[in-house]
Amino acid sequence: MLKCHLSRIMGERKLKIVDVARDTGINRGTITRLYHETASRVELEVVEELCRYFDCQVGDIFEYQPNGTNKSL
Hints:
Number of domains: 1
Number of strands: 2
Radius of gyration: 12 Å
Strand content: 5-15%
Mean pLDDT: 93
CATH topology: 434 Repressor (Amino-terminal Domain)
Order of helices and strands: EHHHHHE
Oligomer: single chain
Structural class: mainly alpha
Low-confidence stretches: none
Number of helices: 5
């Protein structure tokens, strides 16, 4: 299972979904699905733009959790 930390990252920076959508050009629905961890797939261009926007690595946004464990960082 993949865990998406977008909501935590956005919360730490006090950003709203609409802010990220406006600043990155990423569809608001895509950001909403990532934020709520309901996305079933994501384009690599979206991941790249999020990394650029937040100045972070892919592993800062996504975390692999084997067997669906809910281990937080």
